[in-house]
Amino acid sequence: MEAAFEKVVDILFGVAIRQISYMWNYIENIDTLKRALQDLKGTRERVQGQIDIAIRGGNNLFEGVEKWMKDADQQISKAEEFVEEEANAKKTSECYHCALEDESKQIIGIYGLGGVGKTTLALEVAARVRHRLFAEVAFTTISQKVDFEKIKKDIGEATKRIMKGDKILIILLDDVWEKLNPEDLCIPCGNKHKNCKILLTSRSIKVVEECGGLPLLIQAFGNALKDENIKSWEWALTQLQKHAPSDVDDEIQKSFTHLQLSYDYLKSEKAKSCFLLCSMFPEDWYISLEDLAYYAVGLERFDDLDSIEDARGRVQNAVDMLTSSCLLLKNQYLGEGYTKMHDVVRDVALLIASQGNNKFLSNLNKVHIPHLEIFLVQKNQNLSKISDEFIGWMKKVKVLDISWNNISSLPQSFQLLTKLRMLDLRGNKSLHEISILGVLRDLEILILNETGITKIPREIAQLVNLRVLQVKDCVDLSLITEGVIAALSRLEELCIDLSFLKRASPCIVENKDSILIN
Predict the structure, then answer these.
(1) What fold does the segment set 102-218 form as a domain?
(2) Among candidates 120, 135, 265, which has minimal Cα distance to 195?
(3) pLDDT tens digits for 60-106?
(4) Across 386-398, average pLDDT
(5) CATH of domain 374-517
(6) Which residues contact 283 (CB under 8 A, 6 or more apart)?
């Protein structure tokens, strides 16, 4: 029993910590792990049978048996997860096998964002094809500062064998930052040395192309297809062979079909909607999941929504799905409440949105945007006024975020926004009067933080569908009109910072249970 358990533990952890040389025995180790996993499962079942017999007979278990069962379950779970991931990775790597086997291609490049697994995939592909087609694989890291002597040392033996005409060899050049001439690295290639294949990884498609390679984007491609059957992979191949729209930047054209494919294969419409919403934020913006939840509620993206907290959970699930598909990036600075979108991914997302029926994204070069559902204009201190004409252009808008501007008043045309469900006015410190908002009967989320309002007027009581009201850090606030809060029967979240209420002025604060007079 212990031998089987120790065997699978050793193999499992060994897979995780072996260095690069392990990759060349990768397939053999995976097969060994699978056999050991089955042995451990069988042993566990037999032990469970003995436990059941002992319990029925009223006998005590030997010391350590329960702990062994718990440890065995944990290791079985880890091993099964690893085997499943390996199976998915196998599907991904098959695409690259074809490129290596193509006699017309001598240099193959894998490009993608930093940290998405280019090196791991390159090593895995090399390991899988080595026994079938190639004599040896030589590995070297190029990096931003090229050390020619080190590189020549790493691949020296392989280049000698290529010159001798040995069986085909792979030279893996990892982390290439700029154009490299193989001859500068003493790598024999060209028509005279067909027995040399160069597999390189880079963050830039331009580098791959300048090196004469066939570029293969892995940023989200493998994750999009990891659970699909062979027919889906064949269909995906035809999609990858299609061209992107010609009226966009070259860099975006190269990434378009790959990212479009990843988007199309998202199994959740909520995740697709979240992806497009994230593209609306500026480049390199840390995107708040709280904002995404509010936008999604305003856009009515969720069916059978129980609460605002439920919306937060659904957004978190969508962001997790997009992150695992490499369409969003994990935020390393602001914590779990934020995410980020790579600039290339954002450009492609905007292009995808512009071609579909996405009413919350529009070409703002057009003056008339009657079907617009969401509009964001943030952090513009030069924006002090919104014209009636502009509001008239977007009567169907559901989400309006005009936070952190310098708006001093709201136009009378606001009463035309009868579809509005989410309004963010935070940070407009010159904004004092909000009575006009009372006509927005469908409004569900209203954010007034850090505005210049002096009171919450009686008109706000007409917002009977309001679910979230935030009035934080309003330093001029002196009055919350009696009866307003009690009238908001659907209110789920009320955030009012009472510390800023002016002590010099009479103030009425109420809730549904009591009225406080200051």
Answers:
(1) Rossmann fold (3.40.50)
(2) 135
(3) 777 777 888 888 888 888 777 777 666 655 555 555 666 666 666 77
(4) 88
(5) 3.80.10.10
(6) 343, 346
